[in-house]
Structures are given as C-alpha cells and as structure tokens.
Please model this.
Amino acid sequence: MAKQQFDRSKAHVNVGTIGHVDHGKTTLTSAITKVLADKGLASYLDMDSIDNAPEEKTRGVTIAIAHVEYESDTRHYA
Model:
C-alpha cells in the first residue's frame, strides 16, 4: 500500500505526552480524539484501541508507545 501524501497546508505540531503510570495519558489522548471526532476532524480512538497489546489489557497499563494523529482547523498533530 502506498504511503498517503502529507498535506502541508496546515502547521504540523509534534505532541509528546509523558507522565507517571495511571495519571491519564491514554485517557487524555482518547478524549482529544473524541472531541475532534465530534467536530469531524479526527477518528475517535477509545482507550482499548490505544492500549492494544494483550499484556496491556491484562495489566491495565500502557506498556508500548502509541502513535496517534489528529488535526484541528488550523494544525495537524502527530
């Protein structure tokens, strides 16, 4: 499958979310995609789709990093 051409009409912002275990990083990321999905600007990702490794589901914590992209009216976030 060919890579999709990146649209450079919007400013690009890299966002890193770091914090201690169980402080809401995955919840925040899921909430951001929900708000933007309601506006038609992103696809909603629930917490289970972000924490998708079997060990993460068993332990209830994020182990592996996740890459989530979304955009607002003026910026693309990755």
Helices lie at 25-38, 47-50, 54-59.
